[in-house]
Amino acid sequence: MAKESRVKKKIFFKLRNKFSNAFRGIYTAIKEESSLIIHFIVSLVVIGLGIWLQKMVPNQFGCVQWAILLLTIGIVIGFELINTMVENFVDLLSFEYNIKAKKIKDICAAATLINSILAIAIGLLIMLPPLVDVIKLYLQIS
User: What Gene Ontology terms describe what this protein does at the molecular function level (predicted)?
Assistant: First the structure.
């Protein structure tokens, strides 16, 4: 019984340490990368707009739209974190200017940019139709 309890505690502490490391990584990335702050702010705005749209037109904004939006937000923030990690890793390996290091950083930044552009397109495709309907409804009432 005591051995089983020690095993459970060990598993709990390992899991807690993994989450602690992950949150420390997010905090470090936010401190270093201003674009990550922008992604988080835009994500909060999108989530707020989604909550509002779901209340206004619940039949047009449901679980599928939420799943797509949250997945898109996660992919963009994940790519930004990977981009930050690659930049830090390249800086660690190369102390002076290196054209290959620049190419690596530029390509990684391009991947993040493409994901951000696609996220905007996905957000517009999902949120624009219900938003237009809310505006039409508001104009009919006034």
Answer: ATP binding; kinase activity; metal ion binding
Residue whose C-alpha is closest to residue 118's, from 73, 81, 85: 73
How confident is the model over 64-120, as pLDDT tens digits? 999 999 999 999 999 999 999 999 999 999 888 899 999 999 999 999 999 999 999
Per the annotation, does 80 bind a ligand?
Answer: yes
Contacts of 122 (CB under 8 A, 6+ apart): 68, 69, 72
Distance CA 100, CA 115 (A): 23
Model pTM score: 0.84
**4 counts as catalytic:** no
Q: How far apart are CA 26 and CA 62, in angstroms?
A: 29
Q: Is 87 annotated as a binding residue?
A: yes
Terminal Cα-to-Cα distance of the chain (whole angstroms): 70
